[in-house]
């Protein structure tokens, strides 16, 4: 015995014309999509993250830690929001969405560098407006970082054949 054919699902129906939905004579306003966050603006591979952690400079805030490594061809973002921040994926994804959107908006004004944002537990309790404010502060501080020096305040070491410099006291 054959089963009766199933009715078409709601999702497979064609949408009604915009004029029919909005009413006759109504104007339909089309909102253009926001510019995408291109794949080239993201850090995706673990090796890229490790390189930034090992070689980059760090800017810390109350809820985030931002690692910055200059020298990229454009500003790129990597996100690290672990289960330690919050066990719920909804909360972790909210933090990531907020960070991505703010970075996308500020990206053109940032220096070309790789940025890795590491969330702390405190980020899970903050409302979206506070998250954005702290992230914007961190990104502004990172943009004003001085380039990494050659390593300290002491003069460069003498060459191998020269005698050591003696202090004059």
**Termini separation (Å)?**
107 Å
Strand content: 5-15%
Helix and strand pattern: HHEEEHEH
CATH class of the domain at 74-144 reads Alpha Beta
Taking pLDDT < 50 over at least 5 consecutive residues as the criterion, the unreliable ranges are none
Label the CATH architecture of the domain at 74-144: 2-Layer Sandwich
> So what's the overall shape?
globular
Q: pLDDT average, as an integer?
A: 81
Quickly count the helices.
4
Strand order, largest beta sheet: 1-2-4-3
Cα-based radius of gyration, to the nearest Å: 26 Å
As for the CATH topology of the domain at 74-144, it is Ribosomal Protein S5, domain 2
Helix percent reads: 25-40%
Structure summary, number of beta strands: 4
Structure description:
By secondary structure, the protein is α+β, with helices and mostly antiparallel strands. The chain contains four helices and four strands. It has a four-stranded mixed sheet, sandwiched between helices. The longest helix is centred in the middle third of the chain and has 18 residues, at 89-106. The chain starts with 17 loop residues before the first helix and ends in a 26-residue tail after the last helix. The model has no long low-confidence stretch (mean pLDDT 81).
């Amino acid at each position: 015995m054959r089963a009766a054919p199933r009715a078409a699902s709601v999702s497979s129906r064609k949408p009604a014309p915009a004029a029919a939905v909005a009413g006759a004579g109504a104007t339909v306003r089309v909102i253009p999509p926001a510019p995408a966050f291109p794949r080239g603006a993201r850090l995706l591979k673990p090796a890229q993250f490790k390189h930034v952690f090992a070689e980059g400079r760090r800017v810390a805030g109350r809820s985030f830690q931002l690692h910055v490594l200059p020298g990229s061809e454009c500003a790129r973002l990597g996100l690290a929001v672990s289960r330690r921040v919050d066990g719920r994926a909804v909360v972790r994804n909210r933090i990531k969405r907020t960070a991505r959107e703010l970075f996308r908006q500020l990206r053109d004004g940032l220096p070309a560098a790789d940025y890795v944002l590491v969330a702390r537990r405190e980020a899970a309790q903050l409302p979206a407006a506070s998250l954005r404010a702290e992230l914007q502060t961190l990104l502004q501080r990172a943009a004003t970082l001085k380039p990494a020096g050659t390593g300290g305040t002491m003069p460069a070491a003498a060459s191998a054949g020269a005698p050591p410099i003696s202090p004059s006291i």
